[in-house]
Amino acid sequence: xxxAPSATTDEAxxxxxPAPAKSTWATLRPLVLRLHFYAGVVVAPFLLVAxxxxxxxxxxxxxxxxxxxxxxxxxxxxxxxxxxxxxAAAREAHPGGTIAAVRPSPGKDATTRVxxxxxxxxxxxxxxxxxxxxxxxEVRGALEQYGSTGALPLRTWxxxxxxxxxxxxxxxxxxxxxASWLWVIAGGGLVLWFSRRRALxxxxxxxxxxxxxGLHGSVGAWxxxxxxxxxxxxxxxxxxxxxxxxxxxxxxxxxTPSVSAAAxxxxxxHGAAAGPAGDAAHGVGLDQxxxxxxxEGLGDPVEIVPPADASSAYVVxxxxxxxxxxxxxxxxxxxxxxxxxxxxFADHPVLAKLSRWGIDLHTGSLFGLPNQIALMxxxxxxxxxxxxGYRMWWRRGRGSAFGRPVPRGAWQQVPPYVLVPLxxxxxxxxxxxxxxGIPLALFLAVDIVLGEIAHRRGRRTYxxxxxxR
Length: 469
Description:
The chain is α+β, with helices and mostly antiparallel strands. The protein contains 12 helices and 8 strands.
């Protein structure tokens, strides 16, 4: 009879099973978590200011209609006077400066705006808008106006507060810094949230820090796409990233064209400043110019820009940014009243159209009140997310490890075939978005220095033994 060999004496001991290889995401997750945590802590104050001021700006459109109702609206009359008579009334009340543009009444109960430049006491970048009753030529008032959307003092103040905190070009760095990092924080948070088990994403029935985390993640997941959109569109007119985007569009032939104010020109642009020729009596006059533009299909609202000099034409352009967008423009010869150039919005390059729609959606113009309500909801969500995030950071030591900083060295676990392309992508993004790239480089440098200091302290503490970095 044979005896089965003993497992303890006749078989060689089995080597321990190798540890299962980590997935790519398992090696990346600590890095994303660390970036999301620290970026959130450092950038959140700037985002909070941008969200609060953005909330005010989204509400300013409706507030402007209430505050300036007397200047903006009139009782509906039987017949509107010629535009030239309305402009003459504005010039009689405000003879100083020159006419920069005229916006005929866009509706039955709306006033006509006559914009004057070169007025003492008015910001050179702004105009003085004189509001005229189109039925009686009564001057209803005059207010400083800014930008292509015709922002009046209340909205202008809030707009500048949101853009640069009334600190000029230096202040614009805050908003560009916030916009540069918003999409990174939102994208990182979204990836982290959906990578967790569904059970951990449940908010109902939880309390304390776990409930705060659930609310933070749920609201952030719903709002993330909106945050990425606000970040991308906000960067298009920022100082540094905006200039890079403009250069890229130019190199691709995707810049926004403009109608030529020179007779026979081909969308070569026109001078925006109005010279002495900018009064209503110049050439064929405003009424015939407006009639020529109407014949080309330019409906309300429109803006008439007088010739910049004796060799230039009138430019009439549609200024409706709500959907459907009306942005066609024509040039009209002041001597003959004939249209010399036509530019349709439908003929704009694709990126020019996307930029126009994106900016108008970002500022709340594209879809009017629903657009503004959506922006207020996004701003409110961002404010709540920041407050919840700081609360979790404050309470991170109470038994939950999710909010704790991830140990240094997480990047060392990332496989080279992932790390190298990732570093290349970060370098490219950092070049085009410098207020993302420069702070990220500084963060990495500080983190490495702090890690080295901790490493040396650990070696002294443990007598030269290994220290966890």
